[in-house]
Amino acid sequence: MTTRRRMPRQADIARLAGVSQAAVSVVLGGNRTVRMAESTRRRILEVAEELGYVPHPVATRLARSRSNLLGLYTFRAAFPTDEADAYHPILSGVEEEAAALGQDLILFTGTGGPQAAQEAAIRRTRMADGCLFFGRHVPEDPVSRLVDAGFPLVYIGRRPELGGRIPFVGADYVSASAQVLQRLLGLGHREIRYVREPDVAPSSEDRQLGVLRAAPRTGIVRLEGAQLPVATVRGWLAEGVTAVVVEGTDTGTAYRSVRAALDAAGLSTPDDLSLAVLGGPPGVSGFEVPMREMGRRAVRLLVDLVTAAKSTPQQLLRCPSVAGSQVGPPRSG
Amino acid sequence: MTTRRRMPRQADIARLAGVSQAAVSVVLGGNRTVRMAESTRRRILEVAEELGYVPHPVATRLARSRSNLLGLYTFRAAFPTDEADAYHPILSGVEEEAAALGQDLILFTGTGGPQAAQEAAIRRTRMADGCLFFGRHVPEDPVSRLVDAGFPLVYIGRRPELGGRIPFVGADYVSASAQVLQRLLGLGHREIRYVREPDVAPSSEDRQLGVLRAAPRTGIVRLEGAQLPVATVRGWLAEGVTAVVVEGTDTGTAYRSVRAALDAAGLSTPDDLSLAVLGGPPGVSGFEVPMREMGRRAVRLLVDLVTAAKSTPQQLLRCPSVAGSQVGPPRSG
DNA sequence: TCAATGAGCTAATACGTATTAGTCCGGTGT
DNA sequence: ACACCGGACTAATACGTATTAGCTCATTGA
Question: Which residues form the HTH lacI-type domain (chains A, B) (predicted)?
Fold first, then answer.
């Protein structure tokens, strides 16, 4: 094996070209404010080429306080074992936009592990110029530390925590949900139920808010566990319910459990009941979450923050509505 | 917005604790070779805690020449738009093992782009302690530069290029393929065909080698385009062929085209013909490529290289064989 | 002839941490 | 009284690059 040679540095070039290290830095760094004779510039470039010089990214980063490295903190595996990964499109968008903006990505590992490992990973975050966060929770303590220190970070998903100081790119679930309900009302539905997941997260609250804003009389059904009892579905029919709206999440549990219960009750959509999902799989009636676009926008926002340190912006993206085939006029309508 | 405060550094702690920066480094770095009074140590730790000190990873890296950062160079998007990603298990294994070994990952973007962008990304590779490469091609020039400089890198997949100087973790396609053919011979098959993809890559050659080693009389069929003519399949029957072996790749094109042709010819497996895939989707007769394990092993090897700079090791992993249901005794056997 | 100018370059320093070779000091042994 | 030792710490330097202030020298203008 070839002996492990040291990579050449600017000082090596300087020696061979008979100039100072600073001169090398100026020329190779493309610094136009310092004037250099064309001959010197060429000599330096030649020697650099000859030695196969490549700037040491870490040193550059230390000197410049900029590395074109964005962190990615996922609170779980970025490449989960489970093939079907609902968040994949977000990451795909992140990667795409990062490439377009000339940024590389640091994937912090251990973000899905025990508390201590998570916090350690959050600290390492500072290795990058800024960091994308990505998950339902906000570990307030370490994150507020970062925010306080002015470290650029962007959450994917709306984050009201820390007094609204967290920059984020989220989806406008309120409007999108309201729109779905308006459509149902427009079709003549009056007795409607909204089935939501049991846990509390901004995204859940936003949907419910939108639902009630458009149709205040909607009955809220909170799922307990992964199963929806068939009795509940039968009850709906008895109460004259004609449409059901379901919270869509990454796992899609709510949607699946409702579908299962409907099937078990022998009901078909949209004939017996209209069914809409708030942020569901593509093609299903309701609306889609613009995941890919969220990823892209988050990267753009983060780069903005890194370069300009603007005041904390918080963006909500429109969710395109999906007609689908599971929504129709009410039965007795 | 909070004004952007500077993060505290060791010098700040030193001032407040009335010691030198070196003392702070010693205590916080857990350096046990330099003795420190217990009282001093505690004072430093207290001040550090109070200021919320977090070591600056870039500076640490520069000083230590070690950052616990591994590069990941994919020659394509790491999060491809296409949901069905055959390489996903490899990346999953990489992430898992990296987490276990306390390594973060740098995803170099633009690796799927134009030549120039690719080479630039290869250069940036040096930002990490070492780098995983991952793809069918080897851009010899930039890669040999890295190898020559002693930069630790590991390819995923066997790489005979550069005079065998590239460390890699591959799969032992030769043995696995031979084993599949032996099984067929054992069942009584004598007239066998091997359908391979048109391009040349070590992984293709290895399979063919294994096939011919076990059953030298096997006929080689090289796919042209994505379709296998039904006539070819009919021809096999006429020639007394009883088993077909297909090269399995990430895209699975060969397998699908053979299946399509068999279906079109109205043939069923294994009644009319036995069908084995060399590295196919899970459950199909033939063998599986231990993708996840390859990812894990590659990380381990890379970390070994980073820490010890051993001589270039090249590992081949066993491919577990899969019985499946598409292989049986020959029809007239 | 001398100050002013500007081109072309370098010395010095910063970035934040790790490490090595000491220094200083009080105690011990003779 | 002096060498010696070990404990506790620090000064200095390295890591590799970027930046800024300032130096030198030749040319220009009066």
Answer: 8-64
